[in-house]
């Protein structure tokens, strides 16, 4: 009798369990998607100067809120995953010409050249020389989207294809791209300077490409000739500092490390004959046993230690990371430099961001831009669910380049006026 009386209460208990489960799921979703995070303008770090004041006035994106898609855009992981999986949505297909350069060691470097589709805002001939991220090239969707937008704003674009990254281009020497080798990028820049002697350059690097372009500019003062400005997006600045954080599970960096290592293994193994074949004159430090170690590698650091550093004869991983990182070259860059990172980038630990912050406090030519959201090379925009084809990053780089071109034009006009006035006196 008591059992029969208690039976009607069971559904209420089950309803409570269901509600608790739903609440728990919603809580996890809110936390994972970071839905409670506010939108805000990016944090800016710079020295007060005429240039910085001009940039703040001429680049509205620096002072406006960056608003990512409402449902998922505040998650750095989803932004990064979408960039990694699909690059961009409705990506255009800009038409360009592929150029080949034979390097001194026999390597064949390639880059793609895209002519402008409109007149530039100041009427000048300006070329963007672009270095993509790790193992990337001109055919990647995020590069295509950016190039198309830059072309429509009057820029010629030259995009480096990292050595070994294009699946249909064979290696012609036992070497492929590394973390900080600037040889191929330098060869592309020299080609542009020689072919278009009147052009001025805007240097752009994404992720690993950001390290390469900053290192290239800082290597010698001559590399900064004809350069209007440089923009680096989502780089880590110091591989030596990053290696420890990349082995941590915080923000799933160890998992991302594994995925990128797996991709690098596939690229290296696709060129195994050119790199490890019996007929190949390999670097003395590169041995056949390194190939067997490559198969079992689960991190970029293992690949760098067993294979990549040996392409350039480094005796240790520490030496390789120290020499190949741009950190020791940043203070030698004198052209306007904009460094962009996202606070929620799961690949770049927050401790690494002290490098650009410190630099921007010492150098008037440097501005560090740090939005709350964007992930690693994501920076998608959109209202609720679906992202726009063009990202905040694409718009910011072009807007900054336009402002610098205008700044240089104004300086030139002022200089001409002062010269005329001096002659009249």
Structural features, described:
Belongs to the AB hydrolase superfamily. AB hydrolase 4 family. Keywords: Cell membrane, Glycoprotein, Hydrolase, Lipid degradation, Lipid metabolism, Membrane, Serine esterase, Signal-anchor, Transmembrane, Transmembrane helix. Its EC number is 3.1.1.23, 3.1.1.6, 3.1.1.79. GO terms for molecular function: acetylesterase activity; monoacylglycerol lipase activity. It holds the Pfam family Abhydrolase_1. α3 crosses α15. The radius of gyration is 25 Å and the shape is globular. 43% of the residues lie in helices and 12% in strands. It has helices spanning 2-6, 10-33, 50-58, 76-86, 141-152, 183-195, 208-219, 239-245, 253-270, 272-276, 288-296, 300-306, 317-324, 354-362, 392-424; strands at residues 43-46, 97-102, 108-114, 126-131, 156-161, 200-206, 227-233, 337-340, 366-370. β4, α5 (141-152) and β5 form a beta-alpha-beta unit. The chain contains 15 helices and nine strands. The protein has a domain at 34-237 and 324-405: Rossmann fold (3-Layer(aba) Sandwich). It has a nine-stranded mixed sheet, with helices on both faces. By secondary structure, the chain is an alpha/beta fold. The longest helix has 33 residues, at 392-424.
Determine the strand fraction and express it as a percent band: 5-15%
Low-confidence stretches: 420-424
Name of the CATH first level of the domain at 34-237 and 324-405 = Alpha Beta
For the terminal residues, how far apart are their CA atoms? 115 Å
The helix/strand series, from N terminus to C terminus, equals HHEHHEEEHEHEHEHHHHHHEHEH
Examine the coordinates and then state which fold CATH places here, giving the name of the CATH topology of the domain at 34-237 and 324-405: Rossmann fold
Number of helices: 15
Q: Judging from the principal axes of the Cα atoms, what is the shape?
A: globular
Give the biggest beta sheet: 9 strands, mixed
Q: Averaging pLDDT over every residue, what do you get? A: 89
Please state the second-level CATH architecture of the domain at 34-237 and 324-405: 3-Layer(aba) Sandwich
Helix content: 40-55%
């Amino acid at each position: 009798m008591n059992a029969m009386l208690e039976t009607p209460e069971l559904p209420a208990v089950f309803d409570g369990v269901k509600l608790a489960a739903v609440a728990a799921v919603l809580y996890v979703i809110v936390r994972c998607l970071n839905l409670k995070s506010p939108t805000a303008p990016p944090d800016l770090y710079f020295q007060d100067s005429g240039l910085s004041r001009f940039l703040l006035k001429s680049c509205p994106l620096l002072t406006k809120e960056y608003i990512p898609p409402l449902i998922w855009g505040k998650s750095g992981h989803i932004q990064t995953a979408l960039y990694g999986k699909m690059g961009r949505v409705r990506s255009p297909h800009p038409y360009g010409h592929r150029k080949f350069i034979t390097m001194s060691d026999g390597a064949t470097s390639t880059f793609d050249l895209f002519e402008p589709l409109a007149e530039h805002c100041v009427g000048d001939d300006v070329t963007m020389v672009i270095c993509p991220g790790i193992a990337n090239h001109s055919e990647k969707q995020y590069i295509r989207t950016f190039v198309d937008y830059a072309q429509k704003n009057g820029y010629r674009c030259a995009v480096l294809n990292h050595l070994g990254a294009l699946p249909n281009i064979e290696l012609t020497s036992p070497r492929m791209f590394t973390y900080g080798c600037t040889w191929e990028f330098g060869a592309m820049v020299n080609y542009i300077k020689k072919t278009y002697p009147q052009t001025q350059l805007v240097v752009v690097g994404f992720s690993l490409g950001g390290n390469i372009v900053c290192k290239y500019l800082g290597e010698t003062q001559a590399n900064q000739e004809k350069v209007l400005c440089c923009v680096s997006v989502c780089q880590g600045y110091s591989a030596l500092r990053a290696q420890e954080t990349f082995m941590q599970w915080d923000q799933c960096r160890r998992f991302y490390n594994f995925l990128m290592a797996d991709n690098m293994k596939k690229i290296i193994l696709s060129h195994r004959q050119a790199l490890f074949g019996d007929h190949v004159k390999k670097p003395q430090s590169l041995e056949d046993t390194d190939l067997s170690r490559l198969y079992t590698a689960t991190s970029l650091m293992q690949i760098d230690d067993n294979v990549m550093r040996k392409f350039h004869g480094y005796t240790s991983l520490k030496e390789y990371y120290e020499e190949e990182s741009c950190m020791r070259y940043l203070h030698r860059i004198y052209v306007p430099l904009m460094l962009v990172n996202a606070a929620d980038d799961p690949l770049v630990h927050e401790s690494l961001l002290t490098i650009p912050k410190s630099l921007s406090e010492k150098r008037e030519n440097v501005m560090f831009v740090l939005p709350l959201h964007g992930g690693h090379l994501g920076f998608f925009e959109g209202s609720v669910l679906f992202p726009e084809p063009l990202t905040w990053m694409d718009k910011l780089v072009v807007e900054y380049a336009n402002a610098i071109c205008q700044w240089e034009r104004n300086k030139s006009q002022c200089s001409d006026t002062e010269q005329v006035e001096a002659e009249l006196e």
